[in-house]
Amino acid sequence: MPKPIPYLATAAAVALALSGCAGGSAAQPAPTSAGSAEGNAHVVKAGFTSKGGTVDVLMSADFQTLDPGNSNYVQTANVGQLYYRTLTMAKETAGQPPTVVPDLATDTGKVSGDGLSWTYTLKDGLKFEDGRPITSADIKYGVERTFAQDVYTQAPQELNAALDAKGYKGPYKGGADLAAVETPDAKTVVFHLKKPFAEFPALASRSNTAPVPKDADTKLDYTNHPVSSGPYKIESYSRGKSLKLVRNGNWDPATDANRTALPDVFNFSLSTAQATISQQLLADSDPNAITLDSNGALQTSDAAKLADAAVKDRVASGVLGCNDVLSLNTQKITDPQVRKAIALALDRQAILVQYGGRRFGQLVQSPLNDKMRGYAAPDSALDPEGKPKLDEAKKLLEGKDYPKKLTYGYANNRDAYKNAGTVVQQNLKALGIDVELVAIPAPNYYSVLASDQLPDMGRSGWCGGADPSSVRTSADPILGPNNDGTSYGFSNTSRYFDPKVSAAMYALRDTTGSSEDLGKKWAGLFNEALSTYPIVPLLRSYTNSVVGSNVRNAQMGYFFGGVDLSIIGVQH
Amino acid sequence: MSVLEASAEATAPPPAPAGGRSLVATAWLRIRRSKIAMLSLAVVVAIVLFAILAPWLTALSGNNPFTSNTSPEVLDDLETPGLPLPGYMFPSAQHWLGVEPALGRDLFSRLAYGAQVSLTIALLSTAVSVVLGTVIGAAAGYFGGRVDAVISRIMDLFLAFPHLLLVLSLTPILQSRLRGTPLGEGSFLPMASLVIILGFFGWAYLARIVRGQVLSLREREFVEAARAFGASHASILFRQIIPNVMGVVLVYATMLIPTNISAEAALSFLGVGVKDPTPSWGQMLNAAQAGNWYLSDPWFLAVPGIMLAVTVLAFNLLGDAVRDALDPKAARG
Asked: H helices then E strands: how many in chain A?
């Protein structure tokens, strides 16, 4: 299932984030906090370096798009590593947030003294699949077309929002020129920003900076054959059926330290049912096969088979940047003490079991993770083992007038969400609160949460934010205020707004400083907000993906939530 | 003085002691003579008792259908997270039928309370269908002419619709309409909507049968006589005609109950019927299928599945027996 990259993972996509095996040995319990990330990942048969062979990628549906300028989807970002390159690149390491490394550019960017300009220099020897050199003009044109949101509705906007674009509307309307991106010569690209943005190198890794030759731009048809700047090119593509990638002879490995490009061919089949995919992979009926489907196309009870001797070594697994929280509607449950009582009454361990237990996630005390720069742990009253503290909860409610009837909304695409609601229902009965479970169609889930029909309680999934290692890009969308600081933000599903804390968050958005420093400040405010329990942190997601027995170097992308295609290999 | 009885007497006299017995007495005698009929009746009575006594039966083992237990002593949390450990998956002294995967609730309690829900829905929706079908069918047959033409076309329309699809698409709409009314309170909502939907779409077939019967009944002498005495239409319809089609209606009703039990299960299985935490057999089947639990815990699927199969079979056999017993032309055994 495709997943928009930014902020709130959509309900349909949250299926992506769901499994995980603790370390190499499946029987080993995972640590209860996001401890050593290395221990939370299993890379299948790493260290393979031989070129050649074919990888078969089984998928239940076609990619939303292959056009880098129109993609907000992690699946496209993953396969995109094979046929487009960007100025910088978010390089995956299983179990850890991606690191930003240079890709087309020689470094991750040079910032000017005032923090408002970032300069990139292209490497030598870069060519498109037709042999033409890749120039700064191609990078600029790639950025320009992502401003044409009337054409490309899914164009990623994080980079564009940071640029000083002055209302630029893309290259198609009057052929205007984007002044915020300068190309003083064929090898140099300069970005001009509205405000200083210390994490700009992460933004430069987004697919906006993939080079697009202006004369090859076929607008919405570009998805059928994006011009390759990476190690592979599209040989054939039949929408909804199949896609074949073969080597791009004009890609020079000397310019690219990030992609090993081991297989000769990638064959994608784009219409195999999920249940069939999971059975084929578990049975190893095609030893060259992998899948990019969410959660490795695995069904909940397939977890049982991941420990089988014939499967165990073929499971790529790892912790993801995704967290699940239970949002409490702070406009309905207004008293922080009542929200705390609800949080304390929850049996989070039982909720984890509904997700498939420790193989699919680990309990956390905060939706931020300790890999973020400036992270600080919250002072949480929740039991780290997830056990309810009923007496304490009842004491908090003594003599209080609190709502006796609450609704719990759940996306109807996954059994775990409903079952988690059943657990919540039972837990809150002990406090004298009746909970009604309300099913919400999965594709509408987050729009319902943002509407008047918002349930009193509901789970939200959060995946890392624009920069998975920055506190702000997670903390701000979860509990931050809106664009003018007057109310809760659009993705703030608990509708948390505190005059003091929210104002401080609003002011912090415009503050400059080192990312470590800003991270600390954001974490401090976030933890202050968290101490009033607008959300109850639940769990951090793992995911598993079974691969065929010939597949090598299969690592689970922390950000992609699927097998990382940039380093995969196949024994042949 | 029923017509059916009269014709039964006329066409094939019953065996020796039966002369002069009422329709019901004759039918009961025939049912008692059939081993299959008696066995199915016993099973049906047992299932109904099982449903009625659910609160007391579950109290015996100290369980209830709603309390979940996910502790690591009950559910595995390492190899196959959520799967009941062997001591809890299968029948034991504490859990007579084991526990559910994922939530660890007592299966016997859910089966017993589920019987209440499933049977209530089936019986109530059958009652709705039977009342609607009898009255509408009798009206069509009795009045004839334009009334008959209109009602018959409506019946054709109802019979022509693909039932399952219609019910699947209408249930959510009905449920959203019922919300906020007394019928839409909490767990009552899906039950009420199932009763209304199944009842409303089950009457057409019965109405057609009743109409055919009434077409011939209305020409009979006793109806003529009632008319001659100046009886009103309503009086003739409800006091003369409908009592004479009750045999057919009874047969149809006993056949409709198992159909509605299966329909409830099918709809709950497909997710538009009874919803967790309210148990019903269909909801239990749905839970077994969700997340493929039936692959690792087949017992979870077998419990409601077997119960459903036995119940539907028993009701069907009983329905057959009732039909045979009431059929004047059936061979006497």
From this structure: 15, 20
- How would residue B185 be classed by pLDDT, with cut points 50, 70 and 90? low
Q: How far off is chain B from A359, nearest CA to CA, in Å?
A: 7
User: What class does CATH assign to A319-541?
Assistant: alpha beta
**Pairing of β A434-440 and β A405-411:** parallel
Burial group, residue A335, by CB count within 10 angstroms (0-12, 13-18, 19+): middle
CB contact under 8 A, A415 and B290: yes
Coil/strand/helix, residue A524: helix
Optimal mutation site among B63, B64, B68, interface A, most CBs of chain A within 10 A = B68
**Rounded Cα distance, A80 and A403, in Å:** 50
pLDDT for A113-144, tens place per residue? 998 999 999 999 999 999 999 999 999 999 99
Instruction: Give residue limits of the domains in chain A.
Output: 319-541
Q: Is residue A2's pLDDT more than 50? A: no
Which residues are within 8 A (CB) of A431 and not within 5 positions of it... i.e. 6 or more apart?
A341, A342, A345, A393, A394, A397
Question: Average pLDDT for residues B263-280, to the nearest whole number?
Answer: 87
Measured distance CA(A163)–CA(A116) in Å, rounded: 9
CA angle A389, A392, A398 (to 5 degrees): 140
Tens digit of pLDDT for each residue in B24-74?
788 888 889 889 999 999 999 999 999 999 999 999 988 989 888 888 888
Spell out which chain B residues touch chain A, with contact meaning CB-CB distance below 8 angstroms: 66-68, 70, 75-83, 101-103, 186, 271, 275-277, 290-293, 295-297
The whole-angstrom separation of Cα A536 and Cα A538 is: 6
Interface predicted TM-score of the whole assembly (ipTM), two decimals: 0.71
* Predicted local distance difference test score (pLDDT) of residue B177: 83
